[in-house]
Sequence to fold (205 residues):
Amino acid sequence: MIRNADVMRGVAANDAAPRAAAALVADGSAADAVPAASMRATTHAASSAALAPHYVQPLLKTPFHNRLRALSQVDSFIPWSGYTTVDVFTNVEQEYFAIRNGTTLYDLTPMVKYRIAGPSALAFLNRLITRDVSKLKVGRVAYCVWCNDAGHIIDDGTIFRLSETEYRLCTAERQLDWLLSSAIGFDALNIEEVTEQIAALAVQG
Fold:
C-alpha cells in the first residue's frame, strides 16, 4: 500500500534534484558529480525559460513602468503597441481637468518610431505626408498627416528633423508596410523601426 506521505517524499526528492544540480553548477563546485539526468533536466528548464513563447509575456514594459505603477491609484493598465501602459491614474474626470488647467507628463514610449534617412529622405517625406518638410529646420518637430492615393487619412503623427538627411516619424500605429510601398522608386533611402531604442516623455497641458 502506498501512503500519501511516501508519495509526497518522492515528489519532494525528485523536485529537489534539479535545484541541487543547478546550485552545484552555479557555484562552480563538483560539477562532475551532478548526475547526467539532472544536468539535462536543469538545462532543459533553463532553455525553456529563455525560449518561452511570446504569449507568456506578451507586453513590454517602458523604462518608466515601475514609477508609473507606484503612482497609479487604481492599477489600471492597457496594451498599446506591444507595451503595457497606464490607462488612468485616478479617474478620467480629474485627469481631464488637470491637463486642461495645468500640466501633465505622459509616457509616450509605445509610440511607434521610424528612422528615415538618406539623400532621398526629404523627397520621400514630401511625397508621403501633407506638409512641406523642407521648411522644417534641423532640431525641430512638426505635426503631420499621411493619406492613401484616394486622399483618405491613414494616420497622423509627428516628424522630427534630426539632420539634413535624417528624420524620425512617430505614429500611434505601425505603418512600415505603407512606408516601404511608398518608398518604391526612391534610391539611397533607409527606413527602419526604432521604437524599442527610444523612450519618450511628453509634457502636455
